Structures are given as structure tokens and as C-alpha cells.
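[Discussion] Sanity-checking designs against the backbone

I'm trying to build intuition for which residues belong where. Below is a C-alpha cell string of 144 positions. I'd appreciate it if someone posts a full sequence so I can compare it with mine line by line.
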């Protein structure tokens, strides 16, 4: 699947957003190294800390289905009351979830610019420099 198709899936996934409090809709489309695609949207909750972002929804769906190797994710967002697309970057928590499963040098994050699916591509490492990953714990606990 090419990047433009993936970004369009993120735009489509955004339409399922449940965002009655922020009125800001986000969609994500995640592709695994095996070629499977998982989409997600943000799902808000009156108990704000129970809210989950689109990116984590896609990742958790994939992991719950046995997928653990990921290639890239596209993220698309906009306010409900406008047709204008906003560039939306993953929040810090989502970046940390990505870091748990993805190589920061090779995993790509496509930030969607508009409804046509135009995007800017970043590596996870660019968005989360000096990230903390599983290898940090292994090194810490197993260093002589």
C-alpha cells in the first residue's frame, strides 16, 4: 500500500471519532510489516483520563490481534465544525506506545495535511528524540 492510500484511510477512520468534549476528531491508519492495516479513531470519555487517542486505538487493535511488527502510521485530524484539515502530531503518550513496538530510525509517521491525503513524513526518532524503549530496561537490569 502506498503512503497516499494509507493517509486516505486515516482521513476515513477519523469519521468514526467519538469526541463530544473536545470536538476534535482524529483518525489513524497503521500498517504492519506483514501488510495488515489497522485503523483507529480518538474515543473520548467524561472521565477525561479514560480517553484514548486514534494512534493508540490502532496499535492496541493490532497487538490484540497478534501483530507486533509495524512499518508506518498515518494520522489525520480536524475540528468537527470545520472542513479544514489540521496537521496533527501524535501526543507524547502515543509516541511512547509507538516506541515500545517500533524502531525509531525506521518507523514512519505520516502527518496528514489535507483531505486529499497530502502528508509530511517523519521518523519516530525525529518525533521522539532520546526515547525510552524496552532495551533501556534490559540494559539497566542486566548490566554487570
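Best answer:
Here's mine. Compare freely.
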Amino acid at each position: 500500500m502506498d503512503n497516499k492510500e494509507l493517509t486516505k484511510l486515516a482521513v476515513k477512520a477519523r469519521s468514526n471519532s467519538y469526541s463530544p468534549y473536545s470536538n476534535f476528531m482524529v483518525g489513524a491508519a497503521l500498517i504492519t510489516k506483514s501488510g495488515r492495516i489497522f485503523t483507529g479513531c480518538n474515543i473520548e470519555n467524561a472521565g477525561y483520563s479514560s480517553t484514548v487517542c486514534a494512534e493508540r486505538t490502532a496499535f492496541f487493535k493490532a497487538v490484540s490481534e497478534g501483530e507486533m511488527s509495524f512499518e508506518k502510521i498515518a494520522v489525520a485530524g480536524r475540528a468537527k465544525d470545520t472542513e479544514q484539515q489540521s496537521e496533527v502530531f501524535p501526543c507524547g503518550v502515543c509516541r511512547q506506545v509507538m516506541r515500545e513496538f517500533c524502531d525509531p530510525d525506521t518507523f514512519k509517521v505520516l502527518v496528514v495535511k489535507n483531505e486529499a491525503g497530502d502528508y509530511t513524513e517523519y521518523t519516530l526518532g525525529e518525533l521522539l528524540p532520546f526515547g525510552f524503549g524496552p532495551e533501556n530496561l534490559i540494559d539497566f537490569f542486566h548490566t554487570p
